[in-house]
Amino acid sequence: MRPGAILVSLLVLSLSPNARAQIFLAGALMYDANGSGGNASGAYEFDTFSTPNTANSKFNINGTTDIALALSPGANALALSGGSFGSYSGLGLFFSSTATAFAGPFAAVPNLVVVDAISSGTTFSFVNAGAMIATYGQYSGDVSYSGATSYQVGGYEVTVTGFDFGASGNNLQLFVTAVPEPSTIAGWIGLTALGVAAWRKRPRPAN
Q: For the chain, what are the domain ranges?
């Protein structure tokens, strides 16, 4: 097969839709935080996990606990109900590529953690790197946060674009972006290489 025909074939394959896993918000925990997002009150937390029961008080996201909420590419607006703390509320989020509510292990670290000053409007921030955040389960202890502002799973990247607790309703906004599959990246690399080869083998005018 000539380089030009191979080039066209690879182009078609690279642009064909690939099967892509879904991304789910699989659970969350809420804790009393300080201004940098660190845990301010020890073991006491709220969470969305009733099965298995973590002994914490519960709060709901979109009206339910034990969540496995499918997220769509683009903006996702979610409603929180229940949960209450002092000056700052820390929110830890767990994501998955399967439609199953998060179930541990004990002391698991949330994938993303944000903090909001209660009744501050839409102002929020990601927790500072190094802040000691709450983990999954009552009396599970605190760990140093990585400072992550996005998380990748199932071929998608998710970030928090809004978290408002107490000022104008309890709202969480997530934004999901598709991440190029390795096969797609490899296809474009192959296209580039074949394009260069075809250009080098092009007919040259006689001198």
A: 23-178
